[in-house]
Amino acid sequence: MHPYTGKNMDIKNALTLKELLLTVKKGVEGAMPFPVWVSAEIAEIKQRSSGHCYMELIDDSGAGARAQAVIWNSNYRVIAPYFENETGRSLGPGMKILVKIQVSYSELYSLTLSVTDIEPSFSVGEAELERRRTVRRLEEEGMFGMNGTLRLPRLPRRFAVVSSETAAGYRDFMKHLHENQYGFRFYTELFPAVMQGREAPVSIVSAMERAALRENEFDALVLLRGGGSGADLSCFDDYWLSVNVAQFPLPVITGIGHDHDNHICDMVAAYSVKTPTAIADLILDCFISEDARLESLAVSLRQVVGMKFMSMEAKLDMLEQRLQSSAPENILKKGYVLLLDDSGRRFSSVEGRSEGERISVMMSDGVLGCKVESVEKNGKNQENGKNKGF
Prior knowledge:
Elements: H1 17-31, E1 36-47, E2 53-58, E3 66-71, H2 73-87, E4 96-106, E5 110-118, H3 120-124, H4 126-140, E6 158-163, H5 168-178, E7 187-192, H6 200-212, E8 220-224, H7 230-233, H8 239-246, E9 252-255, H9 264-268, E10 271-273, H10 276-326, H11 328-333, E11 338-340, E12 346-347, E13 358-363, E14 366-371, E15 376-377, E16 380-381
Parallel strand pairs: 6-7, 6-8, 8-9, 9-10
Antiparallel strand pairs: 1-2, 1-4, 2-3, 4-5, 11-12, 11-13, 13-14, 15-16
């Protein structure tokens, strides 16, 4: 019988509370002398003014286990920003975590689970964690927005297409683009590549390099696949493939997945749509918009020309009225006369006229035949100052 457990033990053998707790301490810390990795779910989390972070952890398998844990201030200042930087999220309730815990026991504070490290990939997955690292690296290298500085021409017609000839997305794109209801015509050339699996990034980059050698023959590069599982499309998160998209000498249009897919190649490309048929719609919209713009200009031109003609007709009417009012017959009706010499030439001065000369005086309703009796100039009679008139 253990000396501490007998029913008839001597009170001299009884443990003090401190001795009991020290025994527990030795047992706990002896069983777990080193930190251990533990998976759990955060039920509650609070950071105190002291900088320490206290969490209530529950068993992520739903077994009902529950314990309090703490991240001391000195560790929290490292763990929290590291986790957020790697995962893009802050530690919070409902999050599944993998943490390294040092188990200790104090006769004053009882059992303490001290978190000393955290593994971000457990919370977001290794692939997602690598993806976030790639995005951060590309941002630091200035790759985002680089290809975006290249814009499509107003009417893009020539396209280098990187895809697989057997891909359903490629067939959908070609059918939608070339069999469009508007009759627009395009030139496309396929640069075939492997579009999934470990070989895909190298194969796609190789196809892009072949297209880049003929960049003057194309308006843009189309990178398309269309749908697939996350594993199938993970190649489009590859660092070197994303760099090649960002640095490509022509604007790149991507149509890689479905609505829920968003890959790094989409993020660095000049244009990104969800599906191959959406790429065709993007291209067609350029022509539809231009067609609408030209039609609007035509309407405006017809309106301007119509108004110009109306203005010119009004001016012509006014000029016609002026000409009619200046016609000799209309002037004569106002009481004016027209003088003609004997040769029928019009004259308006006494200069060159002589006595006895025959002249005609044309009036509105007829002509008077007259003979010059005298010629006066500037009010003086050339015949001894006599004023004889006609």
